[in-house]
Amino acid sequence: MYTQTIFELSQEAERLLQLALRHLETVNGLPGNVTSSAETQYAQPGSAHALGTQQGTLNNELRKITRLEMVLAIVGTMKAGKSTTINAIVGTEVLPNRNRPMTALPTLIRHTPGQKEPGLNFIHVKPIERLMHELQDKLRHVDRAKLALRLEMDKDMNALLERIIGGVAFEKHYLGAQPIFQCLKSLNDLVRLSRAIDVDFPFADYAAFEHIPVIEVEFVHLAGLGENAGQLTLLDTPGPNEAGQPHLQKMLNEQLSRASAILAVMDYTQLKSISDQEVRQAIAAVSKSVPLYALVNKFDQKDRNSDDEDQVRAMISGTLMKGFITPGQIFPVSSMWGYLANRARHELNSNGKLPNYQEQRWVQDFAEAALGRRWRTADLDDVTHIRHAADLLWEDSLFEKPINMLLHAAHANASLFALRSASHKLLNYAQNARDFLDFRLQGLTVAAGQLQDNIVRLEEDMAQFEVRQRVVSEEINHEVEQAMDAAGAFIAGQQQEILTLIDSRFSHDNLQAMSLAHGADLRWSQQDDSGALILEDEEQANRLLSIIRSDCESTAFTCQQNIIRELSLRFGQLETSLSRTLDDALKPIEAHVKEELHRAGFRTRVTLPVFQSGSLQITLPQWFNGAVATEDLPVGSLRGGMRETVSRWLNNPNWGWDDYVLTKTRYIIDVNAIKARIVESVSTFCAQILKALALQVDVSVTAGMVTFFAEFSQSLSGLQKNLQESLALRQQHQSTVNTLCQQLTQCLATVRWIEEDARLLRDDIQTLFAAEQR
Question: pLDDT over 70 for what percent of the chain?
Fold first, then answer.
């Protein structure tokens, strides 16, 4: 790559970052400024609060630039398979898997050539030590039995309790997979324990990248590729609201905003769930300045009725992510298959064989995935066969494509990713600082009386906003209630239609017609009073059942798709309607605020936030398991033939024959039992979809409205605060005002230089990226 050019660009980025940090320090020192005060969740761009959040981000970018480090943040819900995905990307097991949240603290996994055995560095351990001392004091007065009612007391938690009571501290360095697993599990259990006994976990002490745990290990897929100018690091992030910890949403947003790129791990089986939506919203908040990629995990669970790769990419890109990501940056995969294949191939290359499957559970998982459920112990001893099976499993995992297109590219261009991240963060800072300083300078040129009038009018607008908020909430609740009533009636009608169609499918004539339509003139010996079909041949029974299954599943799938499509359309229209209701109610306030401020000489950004609701996720039930029963019947006595002849020869008509019973197997398809299962499943399905719909609409609309109103209210409050601060400054002695005007003008000039140079830096980096892709 262009080593000298990269060096020069990194020097320029470092200069601009240091200049921006000095500039921020100057802005913080201006009279009446509060940019270093507490952050707020809904900071208005250009406000003091928004500017105050920038210092940590700029320092983090400066640290990354000095190392030319590209940080790829891995984000996903608890059950999406983040840890398994990271293990598959790295090529060996560096993160433990447990059926509970496993990322209470963000963790860095850094590619370190030559580091075959993973090592964990946890230098900033002091806050954890203070926490353990506090927990030690608390535990002396806690009833273990009562604690067990609030906390799952497994062996790991019991070991942690003994460790705390015994005063055993965390180490700063751990070498090897098992010590690392134990350390990370203990950290996560500390979060659960702290919450259970009302002790604050020191999350704020781990906001900066240099303070969080770091695992150093050579990524198997990057071994032998040589060193580049930059360094690739993965960031394992906490999912939003994992383990009922709402503060994790704030931590997630902070970590994502500081990453060089984002890799979203999405659960193929839960693509439209509420928890998955929360992750998408967190990603969307930073996607304009951070490159975005997605792995759609658990794609091995796809069946013949599921969306294929192209359909999944199109749905995520166009519908779920609303254009924030292109289809070419979305990769359906099976992380578990990729991890198992990697692990098996690593063991074969290192040791020439797999470990004992009775000692290491993953070997059993690999054997079942690669060889099938009926694998034999002897199969594991055939190294050539196992190596081939591992290669095929890796191929089936679909991980080769993202490894080549994402991991290798990220490694080769890590320095460019780090530079691009720095340029975007610099531009973001410069634009926020310019808006803030410009607003503050304008406030000093407006008469005090005019400022007071603006504050009074804005307070009137805020009061009007509260009134309209109540009215709009009632209107929206009424619209949602009507939509749910209509959806209930529609689902009930669809349920009856499905049952009528299924019932018609099981008539004797229709079953025969289906057989002929599939090219099989299947005949059954009889149909008893219960409606069961009785066949003499097993192959014929299975063929007929396959035809019935195919027809019923096709009918149910078509009806289900109609339900999903219709409900998605209805609630897509509802979302549009609700957005229009909100806009119609609040646009006049927005326009009035802008008009008043513009008349007073202010240029400001007051915009309505975007309202979004949730989606649906439905799965088909299984109806045909064990649908063919066998029955052994005694064959009736045969008259004549060899038996009678032999008996007559021996002058003993019943000689020995009654001791032996001849039997014949027949195969029974209990049609009524299948119909009963389908009826029950359809009824359950319709009840569940209505319940899930009600829950998701309630959560989405409620959460959407709360966020919408909170963001707009915060915008108005931020404007009010800026005006009040401007008034306070304007009322000072004129000489003080003149001095401050000069300082603001100088700060504005500096930040415009930073913005211009940062834009040039970004353009140069984009040119290099384009050259690398050719």
Answer: 75
Q: Give the span between the Cα atoms of 474 and 466, in whole angstroms.
A: 13
3-state secondary structure of 483: helix
> What whole-number distance in Å separates Cα of residue 450 and Cα of residue 443?
10
723-745: average pLDDT: 80
User: 750 with 23: CB under 8 angstroms?
Assistant: yes
Give the CA angle between residues 464, 469, 475 to the nearest 5°.
Answer: 130
Strand partners, 74: 236, 263
Stretch 316-341: mean pLDDT? 86
37 touches 382 (CB < 8 A): no
Q: 306, 258, 309: which is closest to 69 by C-alpha?
A: 258
Q: Which fold has domain 68-334+398-412?
A: Rossmann fold (3.40.50)
Distances (CA, A) of 28 to 24, 414, 650: 6, 33, 118
Contacts of 337 (CB under 8 A, 6+ apart): 300, 369, 393, 394, 396, 397, 399
Tell me, what amino acid is at 215? I
Please state the φ and ψ torsions of residue 218, each to the nearest 5 degrees. -80, 125
Which two three-digit tokens encode residue 603?
A: 């240029």
Give CA angle at 411 (409, 415), nearest 5°: 100
Contacts of the segment 158-166: beta carbons below 8 A, 24+ positions apart: 159/186, 160/186, 160/189, 160/190, 160/193, 161/193, 164/132, 164/135, 164/136, 164/139, 165/136, 165/139
3-state secondary structure of 37: coil
Residue 755 corresponds to which tokens in the numbers above? Answer: 């913005």
Nearest to 85 by CA among 287, 311, 294, 348: 294
Q: For residues 173 and 166, what is the distance between their CA atoms, to the nearest angstrom?
A: 20
Q: Across the beta sheet with 526-527, what order do the strands follow? A: 526-527, 533-535, 663-669, 628-634
CB 233 within 8 A of CB 70: yes
Distances (CA, A) of 302 to 80, 314, 389: 15, 16, 21
Tell me the per-residue pLDDT of 89-125, one tens digit each, with 9 for 90 and over.
998 888 876 555 555 678 999 999 989 899 999 999 9
Place of tokens 């039997």: 663
SS3 label, residue 733: coil
Q: Would you kindly state where each structural domain of the chain is located, as residue ranges?
A: 1-55+427-445+732-774, 68-334+398-412, 337-397, 447-621+671-730, 628-669
Summarize pLDDT for 161-218 with one digit per residue, the tens.
Answer: 888 988 888 999 999 988 998 898 888 888 888 888 888 888 888 878 888 999 999 9
Cα–Cα separations (whole angstroms), residue 655 to 328, 641, 659, 660, 737: 80, 15, 9, 11, 126
Measure Cα distances from 54 to 48, 60, 396, 427, 436 in Å: 10, 10, 44, 11, 13
Residue matched to tokens 């040791």: 351
pLDDT at 565: 72
Whole-number Cα distances in Å, 48 to 18, 37, 717: 20, 8, 12
Parallel, antiparallel, or unpaired for β 69-75 and 231-236? parallel
